[in-house]
Amino acid sequence: MGGAAVDDGPTGVKAPDGGWGWAVLCGCFVITGFSYAFPKAISVFFKELIQEFGVGHSDTAWISSILLAMLYGTGPLCIVLVNRFGCRPVMMVGGLFASLGMILASFATSIIQIYFTTGVITGLGLALNFQPSLIMLNRYFDQKRPLANGLSAAGSPVFLSCLSPLGHVLEHEFGWRGGFLILGGMLLNCCACGALMRPLQPPKKPVDQEEPSSKVVEKKPKRKLLDFVVFKDRGFLIYAIAASIMVLGLFVPPVFVIGYAEHLGYEETNAAFLLSILGFVDLFSRPTCGIIAGLKWVRPRCVYFFAFAMVFNGVTDLVGSMSVDYTHLVIFCIFFGISYGMVGALQFEVLMAIVGTEKFPSAIGLVLLMEAMAVLVGPPSAGRILDATRSYMFVFMVAGSQVTLSALVLGFGNFFCIKKKPEQPKKQVDASPAELLLIRKRPESSLMLSSEVEQFLREDTEKNDKVNMNPETCV
Length: 475
Fold this sequence. Notes:
Keywords: Cell membrane, Membrane, Symport, Transmembrane, Transmembrane helix, Transport. This protein is 71% helix and 0% strand.
């Protein structure tokens, strides 16, 4: 591993915005699908786990919570490993960890063992894939980055639409142990996705253009494994605080919507179909939102577009808490899928726009670490509320209030605390009417004003200690 090519992301390499970047995008699509859909998809096994181990809803909710906390909280560790070994080897090892965790979980005899195997080991493996994939996507795309982020984020609803029904089939045919074992084998595909993450290399200069001094090997300055300078950026701090509040309630509805439908008296098949509806709508929402975010008049204001998406999501939760039948839950899943897709497509695009390409690896690691605490207490707290009230209405109301509050923090924080940079006035060139006429007629490559010619002649004559006053050279 130590001899691997480390993709430091050299500043002299321009993002290709295509080419091999499309293969990288396909790998990011699969990684994002597993990372975000997996914690929700395994919720179909919770009822059987409750019966086998004799635990409550809040106890099983810890499985998804620990998994998400590892996905977020190990951000600094992932960035340190990426800066040390490169994205490709880290992702391939992460795929092995993700698969190993689910395979070991199939032999668990207590809920605590599932916490460690599915939550910690599989969560760490997915984290070692998810964050490096975002770094590589940021390096391969610049002008098309909003679209690339939207297409990559679409992996989450696609996999959610497939994994949720598949989980029910596996549970019915093989039980939760056989289902965990098969899902562990599927996670080995993360290793193949990691192999696609080829490091960007600077373009090679022709032999004729190489200077003799270029043969001397220059010592590169040591790169920091984790840079905390991003905390000096006021925009980054506002984003980190808002995102930490948002994830308290963002992942609660997808985890509890199946139980909500079953609580209203509907069959498991119909209840699981709600996640498929949510994922199907989410699938089209993310690329569409990526295209909109790339528009010229939207991209400079993508922070406020992101805040609107968060308000949309929070209000949907608040209205959905009043659902009393299956039709209401279907409508809720449609609007939640739209808003959830908008948030998923914009969250990392906004962070990239705030901190830039060079600071993004450290920024995403630190943001995810801050979000991990909120993710760790979000779903279990909702489970506690459910156990105490026996009502899903309060669970969805609290989740919606948290997401709405985060939108207000982001929107008003940027509006009142971030100063707009004044536009620099364009430099005016002093020229006579005759010179302006010549400028219009001559090509740009040959433009030169009289003041520039005079300065050139003065410098040339001063070197020879002579002043030429010939009519041919004087202007």
